[in-house]
Specification:
The chain has 200 residues and is mainly β. The protein has one domain: Jelly Rolls (Sandwich). The strands form three sheets. Strands 1-2-11-8-13-6-3 form a seven-stranded antiparallel beta sheet, with helices on one face. Strands 7-12-9-10 form a four-stranded antiparallel beta sheet, with no helix packed on it. The protein starts with a strand and ends with a strand. The mean pLDDT is 97. It binds 2-oxoglutaric acid and fe (ii) ion (FE2). 2-oxoglutaric acid binds next to strand 6, strand 8, strand 9, strand 12 and strand 13. Pfam families: 2OG-FeII_Oxy_2. It comes from Sedimentitalea todarodis. Its cofactor is Fe(2+).
Length: 200
């Protein structure tokens, strides 16, 4: 396992072996049965290309009213608990006693992307964000702590884990595109990303 450091982001290549990746996929499949993936609207009215759901006390949601955390799925039910298998990765990579209260599940089908943004809907930016990649490769772009400026890109592969903490906690980042069909982990292709955050 090697760790790349790009602009303060710790990128753990091959953090999860294939057996562990399969355990996570099984956990996500159980999760999306009770909290189905949805394509949120942006505040600007256009739907996001990524489909999302959440686990934990809070789920991240976007619609015409803006971005925010909610305690319920848009269909009305409470979010399911964060699977233990996912929390174990947080424990391992952060070593923190405090655990995340949101696991955002992002699903990128062919053509899906996520524009450059900051993760800034949480109360306390001293907690890191941990992001787990599963399935197809995704081209991750890293910018700066303010909008604009130069960027650097790195391909995230299945089993890679990114820790965004310290000075990099508010650094702009996004996914330009995925390499559809590059992984055989998910039978239907596509990329899964699990983002763990301390919200409150
Ligand atoms: O899919 C990824 O790797 C990044 C996801 C992300 O930045 C987010 O959900 O805030
Ligand atoms: Fe993000």
């Amino acid at each position: 396992m090697t760790c790349l450091e790009i602009r303060g982001f710790q990128i753990w290549k091959d953090n999860l072996d294939v057996a562990e990746q399969k355990v996570l996929v099984a956990a996500v499949r159980r999760l999306v049965k009770v909290a189905p993936l949805r394509q949120p609207d942006t505040p600007y009215g256009r739907p996001m290309s990524v489909r999302m759901t959440s686990a934990g006390t809070f789920g991240w949601h976007s619609d015409r009213r803006g971005y925010r955390y909610t305690s319920r799925h848009p269909d009305g039910m409470e979010w399911p608990a964060i699977p233990q298998e996912i929390l174990a990765i947080w424990d391992r990579v952060t070593g923190l006693a405090r655990r995340p209260d949101c696991c955002l599940v992002n699903w990128y089908d062919e053509g899906a992307r996520m524009g450059l943004h900051q993760d800034r809907d949480e109360a306390d930016f001293t907690w890191p964000v941990v992001s787990i990649s599963l399935g197809d490769d995704g081209l991750f772009r890293i910018g700066n702590q303010t909008r604009g400026g130069t960027t650097e890109s790195v391909w995230l592969a299945s089993g890679d884990v990114v820790v965004m903490g310290g000075g990099a906690r508010l650094t702009y980042h996004g996914i330009d595109r995925i390499r559809f069909g590059s992984s055989r982990l998910l039978s239907q292709g596509g990329r899964l990303n699990l983002t763990l955050r301390v919200v409150t």
